[in-house]
Amino acid sequence: MNEAKNISELVGRRCPHRAADGVVRSRRAEDSHALPRVLTLVAIVAVLFGAMTSRSGTIFDVYSAYHYIEVTDNNGVRMLSFNGSMETRMFTAQPLQGHFEYTEFFHMPWLWNTNVKRVLMIGLGGGSTQRSYQHYYTNVSVDTVELDPVVVRVAKDFFYVTESPTHKIHIQDGRVFLRRTTNFWDVILMDAYATTRYGSSVPPHLTTKEFFTIVRNHLPTNGVLAYNLIGEIEGWNQDFVGGMYRTIREVFPQVYLFKAKESRNVVLIATRSNERSDITRVQKEGAALMRNGKIRLPDFTTRLQSFVNFPPSSATRVPVFTDDRAGVEGLLR
Are 54 and 141 in contact (CB under 8 A)? Predict the structure, then answer.
């Protein structure tokens, strides 16, 4: 895939009107002590050539091959959206704050693997999780896979995402990347979305039993998968959540859920370990991680309260997703 083009080359394709609202959802924040950067020269050029629209709060918008991308600033809150669907929220003065709640569930894999050294994340957005990992886990190496090169450029220019010896970005489809590599990761995080006629949706090829088999084969015996879903355990999009639970359960021996309170997000946690966890064990392990300093996320203890270790009721009536029959759009319809 071609490398990201300079944003200034893309401003001519901007959209003069906001796209129709998609499903409201969330995603990705930088060192709290890092000084907010002045807009890069690329963004300044974009201003001069009219990429910044007259809408209040919009500081940048552009069409990529995959999204209508918009960045807004309002009262110190920066927002990234794709086709009207909210992807990332960040406080510009404190980039480690203001992120969507569900991104903190991506710290939960430590409950099942206390010696995480290598992490793979499929999906970048505005990079809340990547910034958080770089801040809290300085000895952890993170690989990010992002399909859209323009998203990578926007994340770097507006959301303080950086590449470093411990953070590498690969511009590629996530499934293709996993099929071509022989590497292993202790944790694999999934937060890749596309916009369809039904709003924000996981690309079907990242939802199937065959895909999760590929994921499992890149995890060690104590490896953990965390997967963000847009939906509710009981309610809106519950069949999609139940179908994903059932499909992952076909490949991984244990699957748990963390339900966001502030948005319609559910993060599934799948482990290669056969040992079953309950809330008592999760709280005990979480307290130990906080005591020994492995976890320093301020709200970690609070997020533990969102733990669920029973399947959604819809999991019994939704078929397993396969490459021949993914069924994602049908359920969202």
Answer: no
**Model-wide pTM > 0.90:** no
Q: pLDDT per residue over 11-57, tens digit each?
A: 334 443 333 333 334 433 333 333 344 334 434 333 333 344 334 49
Which residues are within 8 A (CB) of 326 and not within 5 positions of it... i.e. 6 or more apart? 204, 205, 207, 208
DSSP, residue by residue, 188-244? EEE---EEETTEEE--GGGSSHHHHHHHHTTS-TT-EEEEEEES-SSSTTHHHHHHH
Which strands form 68-74's sheet, in the order they lie side by side?
58-63, 68-74, 77-82, 85-91
Report yes or no: 312 and 245 within 8 Å, Cβ to Cβ.
yes
CA-CA distance, 237 to 167, in Å (whole number)?
33
Domains of the chain: 7-91 (no CATH), 101-332 (3.40.50.150)
153-189 pLDDT tens trace: 999 999 999 999 999 999 999 999 999 999 999 999 9
Report the sign of the C-alpha dihedral through residues 213, 283, 116, 161, in that order.
positive
- Listed residue (238, 312, 291) closest to 110, CA to CA: 291
- How far apart CA 155 and CA 160 sit, in angstroms, is 7
